[in-house]
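Reviewers of the previous submission asked for a worked example of the structure-prediction workflow described in the proposal, so we include one complete record here. The input consisted solely of the amino acid sequence. No template or homolog information was supplied to the procedure at any stage.
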Amino acid sequence: MKKLVALVVLALGVSFSASAQDKMTKKTQKTISLEQTPGEFTQKQITVSEGTYVFEIANNAVGHDVGFVLVQKGKDISKPENHIQTAYVTEVVATGKTQKSKPTTLAKGEYVYFCPMNPTATDNTLTVK
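From that input alone, the workflow returned the following structure tokens.
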């Protein structure tokens, strides 16, 4: 019986610890909200500090699903291996909807972002200072 109680207490402690860690991670990450309209992002240039971010992409009357791709400036954007895959939205974004990416840690530098499904400019710039 003592072993069973000890296992339950241990399991609860691990569960609480993981939950506390998740809450801490959510507090330290920030959100970058971007809106797509037909053929473009409404935000062309963004500057942020180093850190962990979630990208929140809104589809404002594009008329079809949209997505999101982030690449370090200077890399070939046509090659998926150069995409920062954690920045992809977790599902395509339907008209009138919003989707988020996984947490993405950004180091100092310049990045470009675009939508492969809504032909947007590929010179939208995200600067991390």
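The helical segments are 2-28. We consider this example representative of the routine output the project will generate in years two and three.
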